[in-house]
Every structure is written in C-alpha cells, then in structure tokens.
Amino acid sequence: MADVERPNALAVTNAHNQAIMSRFLVEIVESSAVVRLTGVLDSAGTEAVRDALLARLADRPGPVVADVTGLRVVDPAGRGVFADVRREVADWPAADLLLCDPAVDRPAQPDAALAGVPAWPTLDGALAAVAATPLAAVLTAELAPAVGAARQARELVTAGCERWGMPTLADPACIAITEMVNNVVAHARTPMTVRLAPRETTLHLAVRDYSPRQPTFAGLSPPDRAGGRGLLLIDTVTRRWGSTAVPDGKVVWCVLHPDDEAA
After folding, report:
1. What is the pLDDT of residue 12?
2. Torsional sign, CA 245, 255, 60, 94
3. What kind and span of H or E run contains 66?
4. Average pLDDT score over residue span 204-216
C-alpha cells in the first residue's frame, strides 16, 4: 500500500457518506463500487475498516473496490483486514473485495497479509475488473417482514434457478430461503434484502436484515419440541451456511451444490 503521510483526523461524520475515524477517513462513493480509505491505519482502526467494507458489500451486489492509494498502514493487523473481509464474504452471492493499491506495481516483496486479495495499481484497472463481473446473474428483492415474504422469496429463487439452468436446486433452495426469510419475520422483524446468484455450478443465497440477533443452531431438536427446526432444514439442504455481523444487522447466507439436491 502506498506509504503516504496523512494528518490525523477528528472523530466526526458529514453529509457526504464520510466517516472520519481517529486517524483515517472512510469515504463511500455512492455512484460506484469504491470505498476510499485515506490516512493512517493502525490496529485500533481495523474494526472500523472491516465494518465499513462489510456494510458496503451487504448493501450492493457485486465486488467492492477498497482504494488504499492514500492509506498508510502501520500495523500488520491493519494489512490483514482486507484478506479477512474477503474471506468473510466468500460465500455471499455476487460479493468480492478488490484493492486499488499502487504498491502492487512496485518490484518489492509480496505482502503476505494481502495474499489472495486481487489488487490493481490504478483505480481504472480495478473498476474495469468490477465491470467485467456478470451482474446480470444476480437477483435481489427488498421485502417487508410480513406474511407473504417467504412466498415472494421463493418466486425469486424459482425464477433464478430457471434462468440459470439450475432446476435441481430450485426445491432445496426454496426450502432454505423460506426458513431464512421466516426467521426474519419471526425474530428480526425488520425489512430485509434477499439476494441470490450462481457461481459455476453452485447457487448462493443471502438474506440481509437489520437486527444484531444472530441465529443459534443447536443441532437436532427433540421430537416433542414445537418449532426451532428452521436452521436444521437449512443445514440439511445446503452445502454450508453461516451468519455474518454487519454494523447495522447481519447477513445470513448459504450455498447449494447439485450434489446436495437429494439430501
């Protein structure tokens, strides 16, 4: 990352989607996929960077570019936050983290903390990589936490599986999305965003809500217990699933594979 000196900043926010932390500035460019980071990042600021990037990834489909051209990282943990975020969203539908970092164009030792994070030396190069992502293969719906939400989500999933040639995944995906949406209706009680996208032969689903309450999976339920089997159904019909905390809620996601359709 560029070794650029920047003055310390005050802890304030402004009307341009900028959050100024103790020593660095996070600026979200609403008209594009860019999150611009400037200033000095130490270990105390890594959580704020993580939150800013995850929030942006949760709120828009497609890759996000972290522009670190004007960021000086003074702690190894600060450098590792980008790889950590990329791992956290690896199974989200149509989500990825890219870097704009002029340092990648220098003949220096590779940065182990950034291993696996795609990086371009210019913002134009990073944005060209974003433009090459087939966002046509993404479906999104904004739903209210009300009766009928699960039906709308199933219709979206069915349409996606038909569009992407994944007919065998339609039934298990409908089971999974029904339970994910019903959990929001019953427990989070907030508006939600349902998103799905294919990736090669797998189908990725996610439901984003605005409650910090994380789902709790305790395995098999006793036969005499009423309810509580939603997560078990998700666990049964998917290859893997999980929940990621974001600053104003969470993203519950799952991945379905053709080999699992008979589970």
Report:
1. 30
2. positive
3. strand 64-73
4. 94
